[in-house]
Amino acid sequence: MKQKILSIDNLSILLPAGADRQYAVQHVDLELHAGETVCVVGESGSGKSLTARAVMGLLPAPHVRVAEGSIIFGAEDISKVDYERLRELRGSEISMIFQEPMTALNPVMTIGNQIDEIFRYHVSMSAKERVKKALSLLFEVNLPDPEKIIDAYPHELSGGQRQRSMIAMALALGPKILIADEPTTALDVTTQAQILQLIRDMQKRLDTGVLFITHDFGVVADIADRVVVMQEGKIVETGTAKQVLTKPKHSYTKSLIAAIPRLKPRKARLRASEVVLRAEGVYKSFGSGGSFFGFGKPSREVKAVQNVQLELRRGETLGVVGESGSGKSTLARCVIRLIDCDQGKIELGDVDITKLNRNELRPYRKRIQMIFQDPFASLNPRIRVGDIISQGPLLQGVERHDAVNRAYKLLDTVGLDRRSFDRFPHEFSGGQRQRIGIARALSLKPDILVADEPVSALDVSIQAQILQLLDEIRTQMDLSMLFITHDLRVAAQVCDYVAVMQHGKIVEMGPTAELFVAPKDAYTKSLLAAVPGKDWHFSEINK
Fold it and tell me: What is the pTM of this model?
């Protein structure tokens, strides 16, 4: 065993009065050695992220604070050092990669200036040396065209590029400890695999200890030396990756592992003859880089969707998979007419909805509804849940009494208490908000649901509940579903057929079981090869 570089002893973190429990983290003991990767797993609210933030001194004090215990780094207890000492440690000795780079990066500073800030504070280097070092870091994290990216702002980069930029900043001074808080949650499988490989390469080169916070057991299987399982602020199980993933002891660990979607596809249902949705020759392009104030001809055209052809049958789930930027979500928005396609036909039954104006389209809106990726952003924070669900039927001419009754019944259907009717979205967890989003989509009794990454940000147990709920609803209501996802494990469990998109085109389509077992296109093969933990045989307890 290499040198111990971090020791958390009997750590308890106090929550403010009125919280759902007294301590966010209670009596936590954790060690990290040089060159070791320790994965901390658990559901949302288990205390994973607050434990990591306590190490960085980033707790929202004074409301949330360390009540007892110690965090020993080197020879000092960093839970008791002053602000100036913490500033010296951050970046140089201990660095952190945050879950959402868009909110963690400064939107008004270029990537180069944000890296430069680290060097200016911690080391004595000339401006020329700092630029050279920044370019070197961007090159090391495999960013394309570092000379352009160094002058780019965060909003000009993709999610994967922003995450790589943040990793470059975290590694700028060769820290002894790297804390990664869900760094790959919203990334597609190939980008995720590249980010994980990047962290592994860095670790070998610098002998860095990595504390990796995640709810993705596939990632845990690929990178962890040891695993720590947290539930409601306490550590309930710890051990090597092999011990915890294949022979879990605690019932909570068993339930988490049982909820992992398997990569083995389920058998497709018998295909109905009725086609409820057909897309033919759909194209959609976006222009960018026009002159100041948006005038002038765009200098670059992005072909988001190109000549897409697909059919969705009654009662069927058709998955659309691919990397970020492949055109999945743009296609979904074209299908539901949130945006207009440039050319092509989208038929609901025998009606081409691309030809309808706003008033003509209105009666068809209720036949096709959408579940969005981020339920918090897509729910109006100022409107109560009951009004959110009943709003659609009211706009379609349903009497208020009937719309309210329908909303109450849908709360029952999605497994929420009827008292939720008078509450606001911020009073619910992520999984509960997604259930509200599903209830809203069902309120118009649609024939088709378009689900755009509906479980990508949820932990495995909540994800399993939402997927089961969608499956039950589809069976009860004989719904068809267009399911957009970058998670091939999820696609394997919920989709009867799968269409694989790359650069706006469908490169392969077929029954899920056939496509996953014998993919024909090289791109499909690369996606399947990049699935984290694909070679692991997880515990089959509770399955």
Answer: 0.78
